Amino acid sequence: MRTIVCASDPEDKKLAAFATRSLSKEAEIVGDQAFSRSVKKKASGAFVYFDARLGADRVFELASKLDGLDASGWGVLDREGKSEDPAAFFFAGASDYIGPALFKAGLGPGRLGEALAYAGLVDADAPVEGADGAEGPAGCPAFPGWASLEEGVDVAVRFCYAAIGDQRGLLERIGDKRLDKLKEDFAAFLESWSKECGGLVWIKEGSGCLLLFPPQDEGMNPVLASFRLLLDRALIGYEVFKLEAPLSFRFAFHAGRTMWRKPGETGRVVSEDVNFVFHLGMKAAGDGYILLSAEAGGSVPACLRDLFSPAGDFEGRSLLASRKFKD
Amino acid sequence: MKVKGGIAQILKKSLYESLNAEMLERVAKDVIPGYDLRERTGFPPNIPMQVQTAASRIVDDMVAADTFLHFIERLVQLDREGFMGRSYRISGLREIFKFIGAEGYLWDADTGRFMEDPRIRRTQNWGRLLPGEELRFSLLRVDVVKNSSIVKAHGESAARGAYEDLRGMLARCVERRSGRVWSWEGDGALAAFLFGHSTASSVLAGMALLHELFIYNRAYNRIGESVRLRAAVHTGPIRYLPDVGEILKQETCREVVESESRWTPPDGLSISPAVAGTLDRVILDRFKPGPEPGSRVLVYSIGLGAA
Predict the structure, then answer these.
(1) CA of A238: how far to CAs of A212, A227, B18, B153, B204, in Å?
(2) Rg of chain A over CA atoms, in angstroms?
(3) What is the pLDDT of residues A187-208, one digit of tens each?
């Protein structure tokens, strides 16, 4: 599908670089006046990113012209983070929002495909463009599988920090020895659970685990699988861990890049994204829900999107949070 | 269970090494009420009977009556608990267990009964219940909300597809916890639990079903309308009969159907007071009083709050 960036200044070099690097080599940048004059011709069968520097009112005005056009959708590029209410774009029908951090980092493979799926322009379950061994939409090679990765190469992955919730409360209820055993059992549980999503437990840290998943779904979607665990928390606590106290989990997702090392040999890994997801999981995430960075937002399957909403910023990145199940 | 000659011989030997004829007959009577050893052997009352003769006859009768497993279970109980303050050691039980395991049965320590190994087969009577046998079961009743309007709106074929999916979900949730789906008629189902912690298993199966359906409706439902359920769990005595229609007429079944239809809201799982009293606190705390005035059931449902 064609991609268009609609901006006040079609000559903007940073926009052009972003468009060719993250969207498509054929991505077109058009001025808002020109776009407005020939919207039907330009936007039919295209996905349009509006530059947020046009102002929210102008974005809404232009976006409303897409109503009724064949196979079109839209998102917002907010490279300066000036939008006061990004959720308002979604309420008006947007399918993507790219904040400053993501603009700077560039879109990961599959993100555009997720936005198209969100807009209903492609089947959400269909393989993402480029997943067949060719190149992804961002020009990234398709994921070759964990066993094929060479030590030290830079890879695009989805990170998930997963931990047992309310560990302080559990410590009081079951004591330190059983809590330690529970954390060990949880890590072992995650090993088999993550495999169903094509992932693995990469780093075991005192209170939780860092899991890696391929940039595109291979098996079950990891956000859907996490959501399921949250739903099943009482059953898992009682039947799997034989726990007589309530159990909860916390999940934090981020998408980015890291140097690949095998699990257990990650001591020398230096990665901004790894640091970020640890901070996200340990400082920002809470019990009983899923927190995602905007970079991982494309991992939310279409069937769960109404359960996620913007949740502010953390360390310069926009966040999305799921709703919580009531106890 | 088909009893091979080898295991029958081992049991006969075990019995005459472990018990006298009088005790053997007492155990046999516990399994087959009114069992009369002398009537069966033709020995007159005034002639003493060799214990080998008694053991042989009793084992043959147990095999013929299809109560071999029941007899072994009674012997295990005697071995563990004794009788009237006296202990009895039954020799060869370990070997007998091995033979029974090889025939596809597992020992359930919670109930002290054998059940068929679900990896080998799954039958409605767990491979061991006999017609007329009365036991305490836990029942999970499930009913589809507004079944007829779903069929009307989406057509019989589409609705049938959704119900087949639901049936698969129910079977997974039930059989994973050693239960059995006894009936599935139109829009309603009944599952029974006997082994392990049967009431907890039935409640957990009901909760798991609601969870599966929640995900199904969001991710996999093809009819474009949520399939909704009412589910209820109740426990009580049931006389097992091969005809499920006859089972459904019994009091405990009628009670669970009433609990589901009268007291359970859509998307809810209710438990009767008899069930609630057996649950661990960590599960029981998930249930709230039912919404209907006068209701004595507790209800579980999935609720979503803010992030």
Answers:
(1) 27, 18, 41, 40, 9
(2) 21
(3) 999 999 999 999 999 999 888 9
| Residues in chain A closer than 8 A to B305 (CB atoms) | 323-326
* CA A59/CA A75 separation, integer angstroms: 10
Nearest CA in chain A to B285: A327
Return the closest-CA partner of residue A96 out of A5, A214, A33, A11.
A5
Contact B286 A307 (CB under 8 A): no
Q: Do A303 and B219 touch (CB under 8 A)?
A: yes
Instruction: Using the predicted structure, report yes or no on whether residue A129 has a pLDDT greater than 60.
Output: no
Q: At A160, is the pLDDT very low, low, confident or very high (cuts 50, 70, 90)?
A: very high
Helix (H, G, I), strand (E, B) or coil at B74: helix
**ipTM rounded to 2 decimals:** 0.87
Phi then psi for B192, rounded to 5 degrees? -120, 145
- Contacts with A232 from chain B: Cβ below 8 Å: 208, 211
pLDDT in tens, chain B (307 residues): 788 888 999 999 999 999 998 999 999 999 999 999 999 988 888 888 899 999 999 999 999 999 999 999 999 999 999 998 889 999 999 999 999 999 999 999 999 999 999 888 899 999 999 999 999 999 999 999 988 888 888 888 888 888 889 999 999 999 999 999 999 987 789 999 999 999 999 999 999 999 999 999 999 988 888 999 999 999 999 999 999 999 999 999 999 999 999 999 999 999 999 999 999 999 999 999 998 888 899 999 999 887 6
DSSP state of A22: I
d(C-alpha B259, C-alpha B268), whole Å:
11
Q: Which residue has the tokens 């989805």?
A: A158
Name the minimum distance, in Å, from the CA of A41 to any CA of chain B: 33
Q: Which residues contact B161 (CB under 8 A, 6 or more apart)?
A: B222, B223
Question: Which candidate, B133, B135, B120, places its Cα nearest to that of B235?
Answer: B135
B178 and B138 Cβ atoms separated by less than 8 Å: no
Candidates B302, B263, B274; CA nearest to B286 is B302
Q: What is the mean pLDDT of residues A294-300?
A: 91
Give the tokens for residue A76. Answer: 């917002």
Cα nearest neighbour of A301 on chain B: B219
CB of B229 within 8 A of CB of B143?
Answer: yes
Which chain B residues in 179-238 lie under 8 Å from chain A, judged by CB atoms?
204, 207-208, 211, 214-215, 218-219
Is B282's CB within 8 Å of A237's CB?
A: yes
- End-to-end CA distance of chain B: give it in Å, rounded: 55
Q: Closest Cα to residue A278, out of A134, A161, A111, A108?
A: A161
For A235, the closest of B204, B214, B304 (CB atoms) is B204
Q: Which residue of B has its CA nearest to A310?
A: B307
Cβ atoms within 10 Å, residue B92: 17
Percent of chain A's residues with pLDDT above 70: 92
**Share in percent of chain A as helix, strand, coil (round to 5):** 40, 25, 35
The per-residue pLDDT for B305 is 84
- Average pLDDT score over chain B: 93
